[in-house]
Specification:
Layout lengths: L35 H8 L3 E5 L4 E3 L8 E4 L3 E6 L6 E6 L9 H4 L6 E6 L1 E6 L1 H10 L1 H21 L4 E4 L4 H12 L5 E4 L6 H8 L8 E4 L2 E4 L3 H8 L50
Parallel strand pairs: 8-9
Antiparallel strand pairs: 1-7, 2-6, 3-7, 4-5, 4-6, 8-10, 10-11
Helix pairs in contact: 3-4
C-alpha cells in the first residue's frame, strides 16, 4: 500500500500534464492491471483508439463518458483542467480509467488527458454494463476498483469545489449533502485559504455570492440541495445510485449546528483545509 505523499514534480514549459509522475500503487485493489485475456474481452465490445499527447478522453463536468483501458499510452488524471491543472495520478499500460460515476451515471468529476502517445481500448458505458452483467470476473474487479477509488477521492478532495466561509450555514448544508451521498469534493475556506480569492475571480463570482460550487465549467451560486443534485446527476433515472437526499435545502432546512465545531467521527471534517495524498484516483 502506498501511503507516502507524492510531491508534484516541477513542470517545465512545453511539458505535458503529468510529466515526471509515477503510477500509484494498487492500493486496496483500486488500480489493478488487466491481463491480455481481460483486455481482449473488453476489446471485443469496444474499439482500439490511437491517442496523442493532449487528447482529452473525458472531461470534468461531462454528463457521461466511456470506459478506457490504457494499452500503450500514459494518461494523466487531472482536477480543474485548464484552470488548476492539478494532476492526481497517471496510468500506463494495463490500467483502466474511470470512477464509480461511470456506472452510476453521475457527472464526471475529473479529466483524463493523454500524456504519452499510444493506444487505448474504448468501450461505451452501455456496452460495459452489458459485458459486466455476464462476466463475473470483470464485474468484480472493476466494481471493487471503482469503490476503492471513490473512497480515495473522498479522502483527497477530488471532485467539485465548495468555496465559502467556515461560518456559513449554507456551506455546512452543502458539505453535509455531498458527504451523505458519498460525493468526493474539496472545500476551500473563504476565510483562511489563500487560493480562495483567486478561484472566485477565475469563476467570476463575488465573495457576497458565496457559497459557490464549481464542477467543471459549471458554477453554481449557493445552490439548493435539489439543484446541486441535478447538476451532479445524483439520483438520475436509470442510475444505480439512489441515495440522493434532497431534504433540508434552502430556507426550509432545519437549524444547523455551529459549522466550525469538530464534527463527530465519520462525519464532516473540521474547519480546515483537507490534506492531500498521493494515493490518487483515476
Amino acid at each position: 500500500m502506498d501511503t507516502q505523499p507524492q510531491q508534484p514534480p516541477p513542470v517545465l514549459p512545453g511539458e505535458p500534464l503529468g510529466a515526471g509522475f509515477a503510477e500509484p500503487r494498487n492500493r486496496d485493489g483500486a488500480f489493478p492491471r488487466l491481463d491480455d485475456a481481460r483486455c481482449d474481452r473488453l476489446l471485443a465490445v469496444g474499439r482500439r483508439r490511437p491517442v496523442t499527447p493532449g487528447d482529452v478522453l473525458f472531461r470534468e463536468g461531462d454528463h457521461n463518458y466511456d470506459f478506457f483501458v490504457v494499452e500503450s499510452a500514459t494518461v494523466a488524471i487531472v482536477r480543474g483542467f485548464g484552470r488548476e491543472n492539478r494532476v492526481l495520478a497517471v496510468h500506463g499500460p494495463g490500467r483502466f480509467l474511470g470512477e464509480l460515476n461511470l456506472l452510476t451515471g453521475a457527472t464526471v468529476s475529473l479529466t483524463a488527458v493523454v500524456r504519452d502517445a499510444g493506444t487505448v481500448i474504448q468501450v461505451s458505458a452501455e456496452a460495459l454494463r452489458r459485458l459486466l452483467d455476464g462476466d463475473d470476473d470483470l464485474s468484480s474487479l472493476i466494481t471493487r476498483a471503482y469503490l476503492a477509488r471513490r473512497s480515495i477521492l473522498i479522502g483527497v478532495g477530488g471532485g467539485p469545489q465548495i468555496i465559502g466561509s467556515c461560518f456559513s450555514p449554507d456551506v455546512r448544508r452543502l458539505r453535509e449533502f455531498l458527504a451523505r451521498n458519498r460525493v468526493p469534493y474539496e472545500w476551500v475556506d473563504l476565510d483562511t485559504d489563500p487560493e480562495a480569492a483567486g478561484l472566485l475571480r477565475a469563476a467570476g463570482v463575488a465573495a457576497a455570492e458565496t457559497p459557490v460550487v464549481i464542477a467543471g465549467e459549471t458554477v453554481l451560486r449557493n445552490p439548493s440541495n435539489a439543484g446541486l443534485a441535478r447538476s451532479l446527476g445524483l439520483g438520475s433515472p436509470g442510475t444505480t445510485s439512489t441515495r440522493c437526499d434532497l431534504s433540508s435545502s434552502g430556507a426550509d432546512r432545519p437549524a444547523s449546528p455551529p459549522p466550525c465545531t469538530a464534527p463527530p467521527k465519520g462525519s464532516l471534517r473540521s474547519c480546515s483545509r483537507p490534506k492531500r495524498s498521493a494515493d490518487k484516483p483515476g
